[in-house]
UniProtKB/TrEMBL annotation:
InterPro entries: Glyco_trans_1 (IPR001296), Glyco_trans_4-like_N (IPR028098), Glycosyltransferase_grp1 (IPR050194). This is D-inositol 3-phosphate glycosyltransferase. Residues 596-721 form the Glycosyl transferase family domain. It comes from the Bacteria. PANTHER family: SULFOQUINOVOSYL TRANSFERASE SQD2. The keyword Transferase applies. The keyword Glycosyltransferase applies. Keywords: Glycosyltransferase, Transferase. It holds the Pfam family Glyco_trans_1_4. It comes from Terrabacter carboxydivorans. The lineage of its organism: Bacteria, Bacillati, Actinomycetota, Actinomycetes, Micrococcales. Residues 45-182, 409-581 form the Glycosyltransferase subfamily 4-like N-terminal domain.
C-alpha cells in the first residue's frame, strides 16, 4: 500500500518529530510511504538521511508561514498562489500513484482536501492540534470541526483530548505520538544527579508553552533553595521572537541571570535530561498531547506538568501510591514552584514516581504501537484487510448487536456511537423500524431476525417480548468480537468469536417489574402474563449473561444490578453524550414563543418509570413553563391532563432537539435512570439539571457544578426543587467542561481498548462476585 504523507512545513516541531518516529516504525512489507512537503528544510534533510522518499511541492511562503493567530482560513485566503499550488500538488500525487493521502498539519489538511477529491483518493487527517477556541481562532476551529465530519475518510487524533474537540469526526481514532526505542532508558533512574538541583524545560519558546510562568516560579524556588539552576531548552519559532525577548527581560527583572539559562534548540535532549533533577511542562493552555512529558518520563526524569489536554492522559495522579508525576494548575507560578520544591526536597518519592512513569510510558507510548494503529486506518481507507501477520491493536473483526432498533432513545444513541467507533461493523438486531429510530442507521448494514417480517411488532416491540428469546437465538454473529448493547436481549446472541456486553441495565421486566409496568403492575393482563413467563425468562437471561467474555456497565448503579442479577463484577464505562451543540439548529415552531424567556425541559420516553407525569404535575400552577420532548404509551394521557404551562412535542429532528436544548433554562430529570444521558446533553449546551438523587444521575451530576438533586420522585419534591432553583446562578462554562468528561472520543478510546483486550487470546475470564 502506497501512502503519501503531506506536511506544509519542513521545520522540526513536535508533530514533525513524531512523524519521523512513525515512519521509522512502519512495516515496509505493508506500507510504502512517500513524504510530500510544501517547503525544504530540516525535516526534509532528516527524512532523506533516514532513507525515506521525499518530494517537495513548494507553497507560497505567504500561505505557508502565516501563524496560528491568523489561522489556516486566513492563510489560504491570503495566498493568491494557492490555485497554482493545488494544480502542481495534484499532478505530483498522480505521478506518485498512491493509494491513500495522509495530511499531518491543519494547513495540509485543507490543501489536501481538493487534491483528494480531484484524484478520488481516501484522505486521512492526522490532527495534532486541539480544535478549540483557546488554541485556534474561533472561526478556524468551527470550520475544522465542520469539515472533519464531512471531508476526510478518517481522522486520527494525537490524544483523546484532541479527539474531544472534534465531535462527530469521521472514523475518529486516537493514536498517541510514539517514542522510538532509543528514547526509552534501559532502566529507571536510581538516584538524582550530583550537584545543585537543575530544573529543565524542553520546548520551543512560545507564550502557550509557559516559559514566563516558569521564570516567575524560579524566583520562588531560588529564594527557598539557593543554588538551584534552571535550563530552558528550545528556540523561538513561528514568529515568537518577541516572546523570547520578553522572557529574557523577565529574567533580568527578577535578577535571575545567574540562575536561569536559555540554552537554545537541542537536537537530542537526552544528554540534557541526564542533568535534570526535574523536567517541567508549564503550558498555559491545554496541550494537544505533551510529547516532552513522555520523553522525560521515558528517560526516568521526575516530571511536574500543568493539568489539561493530553497531559491528563499521560500523567497519573490517582491513587496516590500510583502517581507518575505531579500536576499543577496552568499559569499558577506559586503551585508550580511548590511542586518543583517537592521534587527537590523529597527525592525518594520523586524517583518512585519516575520509576512508575518509566514503566508505564514504555508500555503505552511506543512508536510501533502508533504505527500499527495508523497502518490499520490506512488499510481500512484503502479498502484492504490487514494481513494476517500484522498485529493491529483495537482492530479485530467487530460486529454490534442491539435489542431492537424501533425507537429513539439513549441506548440507540450509544449504538450509533459504537458504530462510529467500528464503522465497518454490521449491526444485528431483532427488530428494525427505519422510520421509528434515528435516520443515521440507514447508513449502517443492519442484520435482522426472522420476526422482523411481522410489521406490527416493528411498530410495538413490547408486544414481541415472548418471542424475543427465539429471535435473538436466530441472530448468529460471525465476528472476532461482538459488542452486545443490551438492556435484556442482545447479550444472548450466538457468537462465533468472543462477546463483550455493554449493559444498559439487566432486564427491567424481570428485575424491576413493578417500576417497568407502572400502573399496570399487580393484576393487569400484562402483569399476569409476565408473571407466568418470568421464571423461564430469568433462566434464559442468566444463561445469556454467562455466555459473555466480558461485561461493561454504563453506570455504577447498573454495575451493582449486574452483580445482583448475574453475579458478574462489571467494569463501568460511561456512554458518551451524543449531541453536538456546534451542529446546526432548527427552531421548533410550537415553542418559538417561549424561546426568549426559556423553559424547564424534560427529554424522555413517556413510560411509567420515567416519572414525566410527576414533572408535569409539579409545575401545575407555577409561573415556570415546561417543555416535554418524547413519545410513548403515556403520551395521550399526558396531553389530556397537562396544564396550559406544559407543551409536549414529539418527532423532533436532531437539529430541532439542539435548538430545544439551547433555549432551555433547566433540565428536569425525575426518572429512575440506569445512566442519565440527558443531563450530559443539556450540559453540552451549558444548561443545568434538577435530578432525582438516585440511579445513573449519581454518575452524571456533579452537584453544584452541572446540577442539583431532589430526594424523591414526588410532585412536592420536584416542585420544591424548581422553586429553590429560580434565582440560582450557574457557570455555563463549568457545566460544559463537565460534559467534556463524557465525550464520544473518550468513549471510543476505551471501548476500542476493551475490544482489543477481549480479542486477545489471553483475555481474562469475567470475574464473579456473590449475588
Amino acid at each position: 500500500m502506497r501512502v503519501a504523507v503531506l506536511d506544509h512545513t519542513a521545520e522540526l516541531s513536535g508533530a514533525e518529530l513524531a512523524l519521523t518516529r512513525l515512519l521509522a516504525a512502519l512495516d515496509p512489507a505493508v506500507v510504502d510511504p512517500v513524504v510530500v512537503l510544501f517547503s525544504s528544510g530540516p525535516l526534509e534533510e532528516r527524512l532523506r538521511r533516514d532513507g525515506h522518499r521525499v518530494v517537495v511541492v513548494p507553497l507560497d511562503p505567504g500561505v505557508r508561514d502565516v501563524g496560528r493567530a491568523v489561522g489556516a482560513v486566513g492563510a489560504l485566503r491570503a495566498g493568491s498562489a494557492t490555485t497554482g499550488f493545488l494544480g502542481r500538488l495534484v499532478r505530483t500525487l498522480r505521478d506518485l500513484d498512491v493509494d491513500v493521502l495522509h495530511s499531518t498539519s491543519l494547513k495540509a489538511d485543507l490543501l489536501a482536501a481538493p487534491a483528494a477529491l480531484a484524484l478520488r483518493l481516501p484522505l486521512v487527517w492526522h490532527v495534532h492540534d486541539r480544535i478549540a477556541d483557546d488554541y485556534l481562532p474561533a472561526r478556524t476551529a468551527r470550520l475544522f470541526r465542520t469539515l472533519a465530519r464531512r471531508v476526510p475518510h478518517a481522522v486520527v487524533a494525537n490524544s483523546a483530548a484532541t479527539a474531544a474537540t472534534l465531535p462527530g469526526a469521521r472514523r475518529l481514532t486516537v493514536a498517541h505520538p510514539g517514542l522510538s526505542p532509543e528514547q526509552v532508558a534501559v532502566a529507571p533512574r536510581r538516584h538524582q544527579p550530583d550537584g545543585p538541583p537543575v530544573v529543565g524545560m524542553v520546548g520551543r519558546l512560545s507564550p502557550t508553552k509557559g516559559q514566563l510562568v516558569l521564570v516567575r516560579a524560579a524566583r520562588r524556588v531560588v529564594d527557598a533553595r539557593p543554588g538551584t539552576r534552571f535550563r530552558l531548552l528550545g528556540a523561538a519559532a513561528f514568529g515568537a521572537e518577541d516572546y523570547e525577548r520578553e522572557v529574557r527581560a523577565e529574567i533580568d527583572r527578577l535578577d535571575l541571570t545567574d540562575a536561569v539559562e536559555l540554552a537554545g534548540f537541542v537536537a537530542d535532549p537526552r544528554p540534557e535530561l541526564d542533568r535534570l533533577t526535574v523536567c517541567v511542562h508549564a503550558s498555559t493552555v491545554p496541550e494537544p498531547f505533551g510529547q516532552v512529558v513522555t520523553e522525560a518520563m521515558a528517560w526516568g526524569v521526575p516530571v511536574v506538568a500543568t493539568r489539561g489536554g493530553g497531559v491528563d492522559e499521560i500523567v497519573r495522579t490517582h491513587p496516590a501510591d500510583a502517581e507518575t508525576g505531579l500536576l499543577v494548575p496552568p499559569s499558577d507560578e506559586e503551585a508550580l514552584a511548590a511542586a518543583v520544591l517537592d521534587v527537590i526536597d523529597r527525592p525518594e518519592a520523586a524517583l518512585e514516581r519516575a520509576a512508575r512513569a518509566h514503566a508505564e510510558v514504555r508500555e503505552r507510548f511506543g512508536a510501533d504501537r502508533t504505527a500499527e494503529v495508523v497502518t490499520a486506518v490506512w488499510l481500512e481507507a484503502a479498502g484492504r484487510r490487514p494481513p494476517a501477520d500484522v498485529v493491529v491493536p483495537g482492530r479485530p473483526r467487530v460486529a454490534i448487536a442491539h435489542d431492537y432498533l424501533t425507537q429513539r432513545g439513549g441506548a440507540e444513541r450509544v449504538v450509533l456511537a459504537l458504530h462510529r467507533a467500528f464503522p465497518d461493523a454490521a449491526i444485528h438486531t431483532t427488530l428494525y423500524d427505519p422510520d421509528g429510530t434515528y435516520p443515521e442507521f440507514r447508513d449502517a448494514r443492519i442484520v435482522v431476525s426472522p420476526i422482523n417480517r411481522i410489521g406490527p411488532l416493528r411498530r410495538e416491540h413490547r408486544a414481541a417480548l415472548p418471542l424475543l428469546p427465539y429471535a435473538v437465538s436466530r441472530l448468529p454473529v460471525d465476528a472476532d468480537v461482538v459488542v452486545a448493547s443490551s438492556s435484556g436481549w442482545a447479550h444472548g446472541v450466538p457468537a462465533t468469536g468472543r462477546k463483550l456486553v455493554y449493559c444498559h441495565a439487566p432486564a427491567r421486566w424481570l428485575y424491576q417489574a413493578d417500576a417497568y409496568l407502572g400502573d399496570e403492575a399487580g393484576s393487569s393482563a400484562k402483569a399476569r402474563a409476565l408473571g407466568l413467563l418470568s421464571g423461564w425468562l430469568r433462566r434464559w437471561d442468566r444463561r445469556a449473561a454467562a455466555s459473555a467474555d466480558r461485561y461493561l456497565a454504563n453506570s455504577t448503579v447498573v454495575r451493582e444490578r449486574i452483580g445482583t442479577a448475574y453475579g458478574i463484577d462489571a467494569e463501568v464505562l460511561a456512554p458518551p453524550y451524543g449531541i453536538d451543540p456546534s451542529d446546526p439548529q432548527e427552531p421548533v415552531t410550537a415553542l418559538e414563543d417561549w424561546a426568549d424567556d426559556g423553559y424547564l425541559l424534560v427529554v424522555s420516553r413517556l413510560l411509567p418509570y420515567k416519572n414525566v407525569d410527576v414533572a408535569v404535575e409539579a409545575v401545575r400552577g407555577l409561573p415556570e413553563r415546561l417543555v416535554v420532548v418524547g413519545s410513548g404509551p403515556l403520551e395521550a394521557r399526558l396531553r389530556a391532563t397537562a396544564p396550559d404551562n406544559v407543551r409536549i412535542v414529539t418527532g423532533l429532528t436532531d437539529a430541532e432537539l439542539r435548538w430545544t436544548y439551547a433555549h432551555a433554562r433547566t433540565l428536569l430529570a425525575a426518572s429512575l435512570e440506569d445512566f442519565g444521558l440527558t443531563p450530559l446533553e443539556a450540559a453540552a449546551f451549558g444548561v443545568p439539571t434538577l435530578a432525582l438523587h438516585a440511579g445513573g444521575y449519581l454518575d452524571t451530576i456533579d452537584e453544584g457544578v452541572n446540577g442539583s438533586f431532589f430526594e424523591e420522585p414526588t410532585v412536592s419534591a420536584v416542585r420544591a426543587a424548581v422553586v429553590a432553583a429560580r434565582d440560582r446562578a450557574w457557570d455555563a462554562e463549568a457545566i460544559r467542561a463537565h460534559a467534556d468528561q463524557f465525550s464520544e472520543a473518550r468513549f471510543h478510546e476505551r471501548i476500542r481498548a476493551a475490544v482489543a483486550e477481549v480479542a486477545a487470546p489471553s483475555a481474562p475470564e469475567p470475574s464473579f462476585v456473590e449475588p
